[in-house]
Amino acid sequence: IYTDAAGVVVGVNPAAAQILGIPSDGLLGSTGTDIVARFVREDGGDIVPEDLPFAMVTRSGQPVRNLILGLRDHGREKRWLLMNAVPEILLGGAGAHRVFTMFTDITDLRRAEEALRLMKFTVDRAADAVAWLRPDGTFAYVNGAMCRLLGRELGSLQDRRWEDVSPVLFP
User: What totals of helices (H) and strands (E) does the chain contain, helices first?
Assistant: First the structure.
């Protein structure tokens, strides 16, 4: 999305319009105040127009990188966007003439990260001993039950070889 120095959208590509769920002609001529109500901070809090990436770049003249914002989508779940914005500065000009804001939908990545956190939480607290070994025989992961079984402290087995930890099993 291209915005001018006043924050008015002057250019948009079809992919951006699709991600935002707004037709291109509905975005052209709009401002941050027109769409800000659809965005939330990563912590779920509301934002104001000045918190949008293009507004931050317009104000500071500096790029904004890797900003994550949630997008409330009518009739669908919240989407998560990874946003970057860079200024376009004219030769001899002061400040951003226009701002180019790029974003990608990272919702699926966020879901996968959450699933991984839940799986790790479950395995960490499992009553059964769990260890994951790398092909070279070193521990990649050990849960608390495995540490108790081997009489070791949690964290003491990371990157150690199985044979070195339990010589009774490997004479």
Answer: 7, 8
Please give the chain's pLDDT, 171 residues, in tens.
999 988 899 999 999 999 888 889 989 998 877 787 788 999 989 898 888 999 899 888 899 999 999 998 766 788 999 999 999 877 766 667 889 999 999 999 999 999 999 999 999 999 999 999 999 989 999 999 998 888 888 888 888 888 887 765 555
CA–CA gap between residue 100 and residue 92 (Å, rounded):
19
Rounded CA separation 144/169 (Å): 20
